[in-house]
Amino acid sequence: MNFNKKRPVFLDLLKIDMPATAILSIGHRISGILLFLSIPFFLYLFDLSLASKDGFDQARSILSQGFIKFLCVMLLWGLIHHLLAGIRFLLLDIHVGMSKQAASKSAWIVHVSEIVSLLIAVFILL
Q: How far apart are CA 50 and CA 44, in angstroms?
């Protein structure tokens, strides 16, 4: 067998210079997992809030805790990121922006627009 002697001995993901498209793809997967795992918690809060006025007040007090607010902001990022990256991936599926330069540009557009959208949403909601 012919082995390439320049292959890395180990992969340190923090030292690899990943392009914006790779970061976007990884973030899309992570946001999808976070959104999926948050479904039981939000179903519980929804059920609690519909049970009675006391249940609604209890759900409201749960959502007013600092850590839960942080969690909700992270899930809001996940929702915005997953939506915008999903639209980008759908466009790639119909062969819009397939060149390396266009794909990189659209990835940066998604990154910037998700940060701006998150800041606007957090400012409005909090």
A: 10
